[in-house]
């Protein structure tokens, strides 16, 4: 019996699970943001013991120059261990992004094949995976249902059209604001929920009237008024305590400052959520905690969880990141300033060591060499446009001219934006952008975690997986071989992604765990049964460390083993994934840690171990004949 035969049954199942995996939806991200809060704001909440009752005993709210923040109490508590749950909050207000409405249950957020989900009979927009979910959500969906129906009837599409055509559905920002206001109305202006919303940070007073951010809020305000059907009589806003345009902009600014991106168990953005208690957490680019939604369960509301990424001592502040921390420092700070209006002085931003996110890596001595600056030449730097980029340690020339490197990076950043925009509408075009950009960067010895190479690698992996597994399974040996080559390519790309994120994110960060799980899953896909190799732990471990080491640079192609050695490699990668997921998604989730992703990895490991066992037995018998 061949190993490949043993695993054939699994193949179809894997293919369908990859096909359901959606690529990152950049535009659906909603960030948290910030303004400098005043002492008066802090005092207001301090006098209200009724607020933030869902915070656990071991944390407290304190004020600093970052405004209010969440801290581990200084006395009477032990340190919070990495992987522990800090907050578990069933969010009162959340919505799915428009793209996910047909594929996820709007109540519990479990993903299902669209055919298994049932549309709301009235608006025909939101879906549920069971009558229980539909019933439980009705209290929140009732007013929304009318508003969506009215909105769509007034638009071009209309509710009777194609259910899959979601172009005329109100955006997630509008829908979540609607739910927020109706929830405030239901619970009453004096309720702790309404008070917590009232105390959230707003940027309004710091926004210059002509700024793009102000324009965005103004257009959001118009859309919201249309959605709530109060365009004729703005005083209808009064029932939410909104007396003026100023109050409305204030509310919208609170929303953009404090809302969270709702993600699925592998961190794909699927919507928006509002949780005033979790929004008390301040930002760091070197966070000690993460906000995740690790384990949607059918028929239950999907809770928001804050998990400790490393041990947090009594008295220390709990800090999460508002933005993608794989971006280089200048881009992170720009984003934080633009959207959240503060200058980040965290430990990562103050670090003067060369950062892999913005470095070349000398192929000779492996030193990090800062990328030449794209715009001006700063004092003390030798990256004049026509001058070579030289390794200060071993004097090797890394790039012949600084502008050659700068041009390639600029072109590839633009291509990354184009690929991101095209990823859902035209996957072939998106793949062309990522393939060409990665090829363009190949002659430059960028660190594997350098921007935009890492982001291109991640997107390329997602696109390749969609392409490979969205079609029918191979029906001839020729088709099988070309799919095998694509799977090998995807493994190589996934390995680079693991190496990249591992070089810049701390052990246990959920992005690392998910990257490892994706690589392990790809390695589990059966390829060419005729090239099975014999068991060899030593060679598998060498392959594993070559494949997932943080030192590789683009252009090096690690061999992806076939047959048995590949399975051994998959097991090693999945074991690492399991351990890191247990931290990033919490030790207490997913019946053994790691949330849904951890559970899936453990399932794959069990299956692989069973197959290896059977393979060993069969081969011992065959050798004995
Ligand atoms: C989502 S809120 C966090 C809670 C907030 N401090 C409060 O008082 O409600 C974002 C706010 O926190 C502050 N903030 C968060 N991270 C910060 C940081 N690293 N440096 C300075 N201010 C920060 C900003 O002033 C911003 O208004």
From TrEMBL:
Keyword Signal in annotation: no
Region Disordered, annotated ranges: 1-42
MF annotations from Gene Ontology: zinc ion binding
Superkingdom classification of source: Eukaryota
Stretches assigned to the SET domain: 57-323
Swiss-Prot/TrEMBL keywords: Metal-binding, Zinc, Zinc-finger
SMART domains for the chain: SET
Biased segments, Polar residues type: 1-20, 30-39
A single cellular component GO annotation: nucleus
PANTHER family: EG:BACR7C10.4 PROTEIN (PTHR12197:SF251), HISTONE-LYSINE N-METHYLTRANSFERASE SMYD (PTHR12197)
Protein name: SET domain-containing protein
Organism: Hydnum rufescens UP504
UniProt lineage: Eukaryota, Fungi, Dikarya, Basidiomycota, Agaricomycotina
């Amino acid at each position: 019996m061949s190993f490949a035969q043993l695993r054939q049954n699994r193949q179809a199942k894997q293919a369908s699970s990859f096909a359901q995996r959606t690529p990152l939806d950049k535009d659906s991200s909603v960030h948290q943001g910030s303004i400098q809060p005043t002492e008066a704001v802090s005092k207001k909440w301090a006098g209200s013991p009724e607020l933030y009752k869902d915070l656990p005993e071991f944390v407290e709210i304190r004020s600093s120059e970052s405004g209010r923040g969440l801290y581990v109490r200084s006395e009477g508590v032990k340190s919070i261990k990495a992987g522990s749950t800090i907050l578990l909050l069933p969010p009162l207000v959340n919505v799915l992004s428009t793209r996910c409405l047909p594929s996820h249950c709007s109540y519990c957020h479990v993903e299902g094949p669209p055919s298994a989900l049932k549309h709301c009979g009235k608006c025909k927009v939101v879906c549920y995976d069971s009558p229980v979910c539909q019933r439980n959500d009705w209290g929140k969906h009732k007013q929304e249902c009318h508003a969506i129906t009215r909105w769509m009837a007034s638009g071009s599409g209309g509710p009777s059209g194609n259910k899959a055509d979601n172009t005329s559905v109100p955006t997630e920002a509008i829908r979540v604001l609607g739910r927020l206001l109706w929830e405030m109305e239901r619970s009453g202006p004096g309720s702790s929920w309404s008070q917590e919303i009232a105390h959230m940070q707003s940027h309004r007073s710091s926004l210059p009237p002509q700024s793009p951010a102000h324009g965005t809020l103004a257009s959001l305000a118009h859309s919201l008024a249309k959605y709530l059907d109060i365009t004729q009589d703005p005083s209808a806003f009064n029932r939410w305590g909104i007396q003026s345009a100023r109050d409305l902009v204030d509310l919208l600014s609170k929303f953009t400052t404090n809302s969270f991106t709702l993600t699925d168990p592998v961190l794909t953005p699927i919507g928006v959520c509002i949780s005033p208690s979790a929004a008390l957490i301040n930002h760091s680019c070197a966070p000690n905690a993460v906000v995740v939604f690790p384990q949607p369960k059918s028929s239950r509301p999907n809770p928001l969880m804050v998990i400790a990424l490393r041990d947090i001592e009594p008295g220390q502040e709990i800090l999460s990141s508002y933005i993608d921390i794989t971006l280089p420092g200048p881009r992170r700070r720009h984003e934080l300033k633009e959207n959240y209006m503060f200058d980040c002085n965290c430990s990562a931003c103050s670090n003067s060591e060369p950062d892999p996110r913005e470095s070349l890596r000398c192929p000779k001595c492996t030193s990090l060499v800062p990328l030449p600056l794209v715009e001006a030449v700063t004092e003390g730097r030798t990256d004049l446009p026509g001058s070579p980029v030289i390794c200060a340690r071993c004097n090797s020339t890394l790039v012949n001219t600084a502008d050659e490197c700068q041009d390639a990076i600029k072109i590839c950043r633009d291509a990354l934006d184009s690929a991101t925009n095209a990823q859902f509408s035209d996957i072939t075009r998106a793949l062309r952008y990522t393939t060409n950009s990665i090829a363009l960067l190949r002659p430059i010895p960028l660190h594997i975690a350098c921007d935009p190479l890492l982001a291109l690698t991640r997107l390329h992996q997602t696109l390749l997986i969609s392409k490979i597994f969205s079609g029918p399974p191979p029906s001839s040996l020729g088709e099988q071989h070309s799919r095998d080559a694509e799977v090998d390519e995807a493994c190589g790309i996934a390995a680079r992604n693991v190496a990249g994120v591992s070089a810049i994110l701390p052990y246990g960060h959920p992005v690392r765990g998910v990257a490892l799980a994706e690589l392990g899953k790809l390695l589990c896909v059966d390829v060419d049964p005729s090239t099975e190799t014999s068991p060899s732990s030593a060679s598998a471990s060498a392959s594993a460390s070559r494949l997932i080491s943080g030192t590789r640079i683009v252009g090096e192609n690690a061999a992806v083993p076939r047959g048995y050695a590949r399975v051994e490699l998959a097991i090693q990668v999945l074991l690492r994934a399991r351990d890191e997921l247990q931290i990033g998604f919490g030790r207490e989730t997913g019946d053994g840690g790691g949330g849904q992703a951890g559970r899936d990895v453990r399932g794959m490991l069990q299956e692989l171990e069973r197959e290896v066992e059977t393979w060993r037995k069969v081969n011992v018998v065959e050798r004995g004949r």
